[in-house]
What we know:
The chain is α+β, with helices and mostly antiparallel strands. It has 2 domains: 5-246, P-loop containing nucleotide triphosphate hydrolases (Rossmann fold), CATH 3.40.50; 252-398, Coagulation Factor XIII, Chain A, domain 1 (Distorted Sandwich), CATH 2.70.50. It is 23% helix and 36% strand. It has helices at 26-32, 69-76, 109-119, 124-138, 153-166, 183-198, 210-216, 234-247; strands at residues 5-18, 39-53, 58-62, 84-89, 93-96, 171-174, 202-206, 219-224, 227-233, 252-254, 263-273, 280-289, 293-294, 297-303, 309-313, 322-323, 326-335, 342-351, 357-360, 365-369, 392-398. The chain has a 6-stranded mixed β-sheet with strand order 5-6-7-3-8-9, sandwiched between helices. Strands 10-11-12-17-21 form a 5-stranded antiparallel β-sheet, with no helix packed on it. Strands 14, 15, 18, 19 and 20 form a 5-stranded antiparallel β-sheet that branches. β10 (252-254) and β11 (263-273) form a beta hairpin. α3 (109-119) crosses α4 (124-138) and α4 (124-138) packs across α5 (153-166). Belongs to the ABC transporter superfamily. It holds the Pfam family ABC_tran. It comes from Chryseolinea serpens. GO terms for molecular function: ABC-type transporter activity; ATP binding; ATP hydrolysis activity.
Amino acid sequence: xxxxxxxxxxxxxxxxxxxxxxxxxxxxxxxxxxxxxxxxxxxxxxxxxxxxxxxxxxxxxxxxxxxxxxxxxxxxxxxxxxxxxxxxxxxxxxxxxxxxxxxxxxxxxxxxxxxxxxxxxxxxxxxxxxxxxxxxxxxxxxxxxxxxxxxxxxxxxxxxxxxxxxxxxxxxxxxxxxxxxxxxxxxxxxxxxxxxxxxxxxxxxxxxxxxxxxxxxxxxxxxxxxxxxxxxxxxxxxxxxxxxxxxxxxxxxxxxxxxxxxxxxxxxxxxxxxxxxxxxxxxxxxxxxxxxxxxxxxxxxxxxxxxxxxxxxxxxxxxxxxxxxxxxxxxxxxxxxxxxxxxxxxxxxxxxxxxxxxxxxxxxxxxxxxxxxxxxxxxxxxxxxxxxxxxxxxxxxxx
Length: 399
């Protein structure tokens, strides 16, 4: 039997653009009106990925944030083309990657169901056959004639999943959008995917919930930095992911390559202070800037061993502090809530208040929580429903 999906040496490159010189004279600025001063940098989101999927298989694709999972699914769904390599598909593909993907915001719920069915190549009679099931599963019967732009994100998600799962595609691709739904809806979705799998259809499932991946899937693919580093039995792949996370603990990160951004991290160092439940994290940062910046934006994602962002700290930077050209140091304190024993990573990112990101380091440094303060009073957070914002402050700034 031929594979239903073949991925052959697939790579995807993005061009990152950074603004050029730090200081421009008036003459330079006039000249640059007629030429580009951007510096480009190649970033390979996925690189040389190859594997096959047999009909009826359920495959879990796992990895840390930024590993290339969502990019790979967008390529498989034909949303974005690969830079190199090819995809051979022998069946209809339905994908649910982001809330609202594939829907028209001006059309109502009823019209979007029929539009999605026609995109999948289904006839109206086929869609009619499943229409009531879709409406019942999504719980949108009172909103069928309402334009989708008036739906909440949760309603859009329920309708999108119901359409994708009930219109009987041969291949169902699901990204971590289930995190938007509540716990009851997630259970419904996982149960429906189990039914789809037992019905002989193929599923590709990306999730940070390793328990759900292990229960639903038989095979796993582990991505790291855009490459396949493990493939096979799903339990073995999950074990490889957890071991890699634990083995790569470190409390100091130093830049080893030259950055082309106007403002970037040179070193990141952390220290865990106190005891549960009154833990704090001290972060020492060395930043380098090629020009003066005011009102810089600094944030920290704290991520558990399953790859779920459990909290995001955004320390208030004094509006009168300006990042000067050269090297400067920041010392920041984050008050941590009670956490379950686990290995956590810190991903800092740096940018401007106009949403421009200068630098981000995924899983730069790690720390470990070894014991709980009191049974039942920890913060488990096994789904990416959202994250809490702990108190944080700038202790010291030197330049």
